C-alpha cells in the first residue's frame, strides 16, 4: 500500500464516520416531527420483526405530526403498539387506517438531555476519526520501517493526515452545534 492509498482510504473512512454521525443525529429528537425518528422501530410481520418502513408509509402531516399508513389493514394495531412500546415516548392515535403520531412539546430538562445526547454522538464520531488517524499514521510508519517510503515522506504524510483529521473534526463540531441549535429552538 502506498502513502497516497493510505490517505485516500483515510478520507473515505472519515467521510463514513461523518455519514454515520449525521444518521445518528437525525434520530435525536427535536421539537419537530421527523420521519427518520421512527426508523429504529420494528414491527412483527407474519412471525418476523421488520422495520416499520417495510410495512407502512411514513410521512409528515405537519411540523409536529408524523402519519403512518400501514399497507395492510390488519397491521394497524401492531404498528400502533410498536410505536407506543418504543422508547421514544410517543403516543400514536389511530384514525381509521391512518395512524397519527403527534410530537409532544419538549420540556427544558428534556432539551438539555437531548443536547447532551447530541454532544455524546459527536464525541463518539471524533473518537472514531482519531482512531482512523492513528491507524493511518501507523500504516505510514510501517512503510518507512519496510523502506518503502522515506522519513521526509512520512513527515509530509503525517501532516496531511493531521489536516484531514482537523477538517473532519471541524465538520463534526459544526454538525453537533447545528443540532444543538435545532434542539434548543422553541
TrEMBL record:
InterPro entries: Ribosome_recyc_fac, Ribosome_recyc_fac_dom, RRF_sf. Residues 133-160 form a coiled coil. GO terms for biological process: cytoplasmic translational termination. One of its GO terms (molecular function) is ribosomal large subunit binding. It is found in: Cytoplasm. Residues 21-184 form the Ribosome recycling factor domain. Keywords: Coiled coil, Cytoplasm, Protein biosynthesis. It comes from the Bacteria. The keyword Transport does not apply. GO terms for cellular component: cytosol. Responsible for the release of ribosomes from messenger RNA at the termination of protein biosynthesis. May increase the efficiency of translation by recycling ribosomes from one round of translation to another. HAMAP family: RRF. PANTHER family: MITOCHONDRIAL RIBOSOME RECYCLING FACTOR PSEUDO 1, RIBOSOME RECYCLING FACTOR. Belongs to the RRF family. This is Ribosome-recycling factor. It comes from Alicycliphilus denitrificans (strain DSM 14773 / CIP 107495 / K601). The gene is frr.
Amino acid at each position: 500500500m502506498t502513502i497516497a492509498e493510505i490517505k485516500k482510504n483515510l478520507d473515505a473512512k472519515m467521510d463514513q464516520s461523518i455519514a454515520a454521525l449525521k444518521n445518528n443525529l437525525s434520530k435525536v429528537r427535536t421539537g419537530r416531527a421527523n420521519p427518520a425518528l421512527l426508523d429504529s422501530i420494528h414491527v412483527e410481520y407474519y412471525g418476523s420483526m421488520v422495520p416499520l418502513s417495510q410495512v407502512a408509509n411514513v410521512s409528515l402531516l405537519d411540523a409536529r405530526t408524523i402519519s403512518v399508513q400501514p399497507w395492510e389493514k390488519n397491521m394497524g394495531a401492531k404498528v400502533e403498539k410498536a410505536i407506543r412500546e418504543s422508547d421514544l415516548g410517543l403516543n400514536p392515535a389511530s384514525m381509521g387506517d391512518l395512524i397519527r403520531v403527534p410530537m409532544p412539546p419538549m420540556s427544558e430538562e428534556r432539551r438539555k438531555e437531548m443536547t447532551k445526547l447530541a454532544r455524546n454522538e459527536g464525541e463518539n464520531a471524533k473518537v472514531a476519526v482519531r482512531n482512523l488517524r492513528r491507524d493511518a499514521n501507523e500504516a505510514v510508519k510501517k512503510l518507512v520501517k519496510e523502506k518503502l517510503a522515506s522519513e521526509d515522506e512520512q513527515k509530509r504524510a503525517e501532516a496531511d493526515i493531521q489536516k484531514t483529521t482537523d477538517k473532519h473534526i471541524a465538520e463534526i463540531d459544526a454538525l453537533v452545534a447545528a443540532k444543538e441549535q435545532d434542539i434548543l429552538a422553541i
